Each structure stands twice: as structure tokens, then as C-alpha cells.
Amino acid sequence: MSMKDAIRQLASETGYVACGITGTGPFEEYRAALRRLQARFPEAADLYRDMEPRADPKTGTPWARSIVVVVRRYGRYRLPAGLARHIGRNYLCDRRIEACPDAAMPKKMKAGLQALGLRVRTGGVPLRAAAVRAGVAGLARNGFAVHPDCGSWINIEAWKVDAELEPDQPAPQTPCPPDCRACERACPTGALFEPGGVRMDHCVAYLSYGAPWPVAPELWERMGPWIYGCDACQLACPLNHGRWEEREPAPWLDNAAGQLTPEALAQMDEETYRKVVRPLFGYIPDTDLFRWHANARRGREAPRE
Ligand code: SF4
Ligand code: SF4
Questions:
Q1: Rounded to an integer, what distance in angstroms lies between the CA atom of residue 118 and that of residue 103?
Q2: What is the CA radius of gyration of the chain?
Q3: pLDDT digit string (tens) for 59-112?
Q4: Largest alpha-carbon pair distance within the chain?
């Protein structure tokens, strides 16, 4: 079996739905896009500048020859009723949650690559751009990577390796129908300001857990029911229709579900935060329980569809 076939088999046995290979040449389009965004939105320039080193996969790993890119499908879990109306599905199914059955996948994949005799480094590349170049996902106009069977309910993982492997054919430029703008219309804060252009500092996901506090009132008022993350553009996307398959339980959420309603989060105490919520959602620091309270109170008051 060739090294490439062995890597694909390993990815499939690990639970990934797709695996592709690309080279370690620079991602020039990605770099150019980051620079355009910096010039257009100087107030958010730091966010984009921090991402620039990923444009050159050789940075820090001059020995890397190829990039292995895989797709994890998280859109296969039965989520407790109601949670996905105010918490992003990506976060509910975060594979970094210890009790999530997918938690061990990246470690297993890395160990498997090493067992094939490869030198390996995790990440350090622009994941969505790498997925497109490795042919395992397309890049939709809302900025998400899309797999034909799974929609955008996926995560991309990548490893740089020291073997020169035949690169796969890149995916076509975009999987989006020519006239579709459903994501732009659905975006509550105008973060999708043009096809393919995502203004990170206006994205509700970032505003909910990462933006400096307090959030500007004109954005805060538009965040609606979202307490942690936001799926509005993905829910509106026709490429996602029928792509979430509720075929596996999500036991790591069962005990927590009652504590994750807007009403419960709005008055959560320190102990519940530390024991139940913080182990599931890592982006809001220990010290910022107030942020959960504020997001939840806003979410609780927002009109429900
Ligand atoms: S995640 Fe929400 S705020 Fe961010 S681009 Fe999509 S719809 Fe807009
Ligand atoms: S809503 Fe339409 S334009 Fe936006 S990502 Fe989906 S298919 Fe593409």
C-alpha cells in the first residue's frame, strides 16, 4: 500500500469522513485576503495580523513537505432540545470536550502518522484554505468550509509531515449557487459584508466570547438569542439542508442541558459555572461569569422564531 493510501485508511479508521493531501507552498490568496481585511478594517487589524504566520506552512517547520487535511463531521449528534437555538452547534459538539467520543481523534491520527514513520506537526496552517487546496471541502461565501455530504457542520484538522506526497486536486472555488445570498441576509450584525468577506470583529461568535468587553451597543442589540457562538448563516445556507443527521447520542450534554437554558445561564452560580459549564465551553475565561450572565439575559429577552 502506498503512503498516501495508508494515510487515507488511517483517517477513515480514526473516524474522519475525508482526507486529502496538499503541498507546503504558501497560501498566497489567504495572505492577500488577510491584508485586504486589515486595510479595510484597521480597527480589527490585529485579529487578522495574528493569523498571517499560518499563510506560510514552512514557518517553524522547514522540514515539512506535505500537509494531511481531514474532515470531522460533527453534524451527526442528537442535541438536547432547544440548546442549538442559542449556543452554536460547533461548540456543543466541540471535540475538545473530554467526554465527547471524538476527543481522541486528533491524537490517534497523529500517533498513526508517526507509526507510519512520518515526522509530524499538528496545525500551523489556514485550515479552511488547506481543506480547499487538498480537495476535501469547498469554501462557501459565508467563509465556512463545506463538504458535499456534511454541509458546513464539520471541523478541519491538519498535520504537516516530512514526506513528499502527491497533492490532491483542489476543490472548485466555491460550492455556492451563483445568486445565493441567504447567509448575508441572515447575518444579524452585517459581519458578512461581501461574498467571502467575514468581518471577524462583527461576528456574533466572537462578540459572544472573545471581543473586548463591553460589546458596542449597536452590535450588542443585534446579537439576538445567541449566547455562545452563532449559527445564523449556517442555518440559512441551502448547502446545509438535510446535512445534519441525528444518528448518535450526545451524552456529554445530557446532564448539563438543564443548566444551559437562557434562564439557567442568566443566573448560574460560580459552582455550576466551574463544574458544569466551563468544562464544556472554554473561550470565556474563569473570571468572566458576568459575560455568560449578560449574554444569557440578552438571549432570554430576544424574540424567538
Ligand atoms: S456566525 Fe453569525 S454573525 Fe458570524 S458571520 Fe455567521 S451569521 Fe454572521
Ligand atoms: S447561504 Fe448561499 S451564498 Fe451563503 S454560504 Fe450558503 S450557499 Fe453560499
A1: 22
A2: 20
A3: 999 999 999 999 999 999 999 999 999 999 999 999 999 999 999 999 999 999
A4: 59
What's the CA gap between 241 and 160, in Å, rounded? 33
Pairing of strands 138-139, 145-146: antiparallel
Write out the three cell numbers for 154: 464539520
β partners of residue 19? 70
Distance CA 35, CA 181 (A): 24
What's the gap in Å between 45 CA and the centre of ligand 1?
19
* 191 close to ligand 1 (CB < 6 Angstrom): yes
**How far apart, in whole angstroms, are the C-alpha atoms of residue 192 and residue 42?**
17
The grid coordinates listed for 198 are 467575514
Counting from 1 in the atom list of ligand 2, the atom nearest the Cα of 240 is 6
Nearest ligand atom owner, CA of 180 = 2
